[in-house]
Specification:
InterPro entries: AAA+_ATPase, ABC_transporter-like_ATP-bd, ABC_transporter-like_CS, ABC_transpr_LolD-like, MacB-like_ATP-bd, P-loop_NTPase. There is one protein chain. The chain has about 250 residues and is α/β, with parallel strands linked by helices. Helix content is about 35%, strand content about 25%. Helix 3 (about 115-125) packs across helix 4 and helix 4 (about 135-140) packs across helix 5. The longest helix is centred in the C-terminal third of the chain and has 16 residues, at about 190-205. The structure holds adenosine-5'-triphosphate.
Length: about 250
C-alpha cells in the first residue's frame, strides 16, 4: 500500500516528529478494565528533548510503547513524521520503526559475546543490510567510545555500556530516539554523560522522548510532560531539577 501523509490536529506538518492524537489505551484483565491512557494529545517537535514524568502507574510506559508502535491504542492515532502508524501493515511498521526510531532502555540489552562495534552493527546485520563500517565508527565516536570499539560489554563500565546502546540506537540516524529510564542503572557521573549525549542528539536535530523518575534527568529536557491517571496534567518548559521535583511531589500527594 502507499503510505499517506496526514496532518493531525495540533501538528504543524513536517516540523513535528511524533504526534499523539487523542490516544487512549485500556487493558482488560480478570480484575476488570484498566484505563492506562485516557486521551493524550501532544506534538513532539523535531529537534526537541521531552521528558515524561508521573507517579507509578500513570501511563508513562504505555505512552512510550504506543508512540513507538510497539503496542496499539484503543482509540486515537500515532503519527511519525506525518505517517499514521495505524495505516501500516506489520512489515511496513517494522521497516518504519527500523528506519526512523531508536530505543534505549534502562537495561542496555547488549550481547556480551560481541564487541562494541558488532553490537552497534547488529540491527543492520539482523535486517540483512550491508554494514556501513564508517557509520558504526562514527556512532561510537559520537558517544566518545571510538577507542573502545573492540571491547566486549563485560569489559566496559555501566555508563560505557549505555553509551554503546545509544550508539546502536543513533547509528541509523533515527528521527526519534525513545528512552525509557536510560540513566536508571547508572551512577550520577555516568548518568550525566548519557544525558549530555541525549541533549546533544536533540540539539543536532533528532527528537528525544525520555521516560524518567529523576528530576535531574528531566531537567536536561526542553519540556517535561507530567502524567497522572493516564492524562497530561502539567507541563514545564526549561525547568530546573528543583522546579521539576516540586511539581512531582505535588502530583504524588
Ligand atoms: N498488560 C497490562 N494489563 C493490565 N494492566 C496493565 C498492563 N500494562 C499496564 N497496565 C496498567 O496500566 C496502568 C499504566 O501502566 P504503565 O506501565 O504505563 O505506568 P507507568 O507510569 O509506566 O508506571 P511505572 O512508573 O511504575 O513504570 C497501570 O495501572 C498498570 O497497572
Amino acid at each position: 500500500m502507499t503510505v499517506q501523509q496526514a496532518t493531525a490536529p495540533g501538528s504543524t506538518g513536517t516540523d513535528v516528529a511524533v504526534t499523539l492524537d487523542g490516544l487512549t489505551r485500556s487493558y482488560r484483565s480478570k480484575a476488570g478494565r484498566v484505563d492506562a491512557l485516557r486521551g493524550i494529545t501532544h506534538a513532539f517537535r523535531s529537534g526537541t528533548f521531552t521528558a515524561i514524568m508521573g507517579p507509578s502507574g500513570s501511563g508513562k510506559s504505555t505512552l512510550l510503547q504506543l508512540a513507538a508502535g510497539l503496542d496499539e491504542p484503543t482509540s486515537g492515532r500515532v503519527l511519525i513524521g506525518g505517517i499514521p502508524l495505524g495505516g501500516l501493515d506489520q512489515t511496513e511498521l517494522t521497516k518504519l520503526r527500523r528506519d526512523t526510531m531508536g530505543f534505549v532502555f534502562q537495561a542496555y540489552n547488549l550481547l556480551d559475546a560481541l564487541t562494541a562495534f558488532d553490537n552497534v552493527a547488529l540491527p543492520a546485520r539482523l535486517a540483512g543490510q550491508r554494514v556501513d563500517r564508517a557509520a558504526v565508527h562514527d556512532a561510537l565516536a559520537r558517544v566518545g567510545l571510538r577507542e573502545l570499539a573492540r571491547r566486549r560489554p563485560p569489559e566496559l563500565s555501566g555508563g560505557q555500556q549505555q553509551r554503546v546502546a545509544i550508539a546502536r540506537a543513533l547509528h541509523v540516524r533515527p528521527q526519534v530516539l525513545f528512552a525509557d529510564e536510560p540513566t536508571g542503572a547508572l551512577d550520577r557521573h555516568s548518568g550525566r554523560v548519557v544525558l549530555d549525549l541525549l541533549r546533544t542528539t536533540a540539539d543536532q536535530g533528532q527528537t528525544v522522548v525520555m521516560v524518567t523518575h529523576d528530576p535531574l534527568a528531566a531537567s536536561y529536557a526542553d519540556e517535561v510532560l507530567f502524567l497522572a491517571d493516564g492524562m497530561v496534567v502539567g507541563r514545564l518548559r526549561d525547568a530546573d531539577a528543583a522546579q521539576i521535583a516540586t511539581a512531582m511531589s505535588e502530583l504524588e500527594q
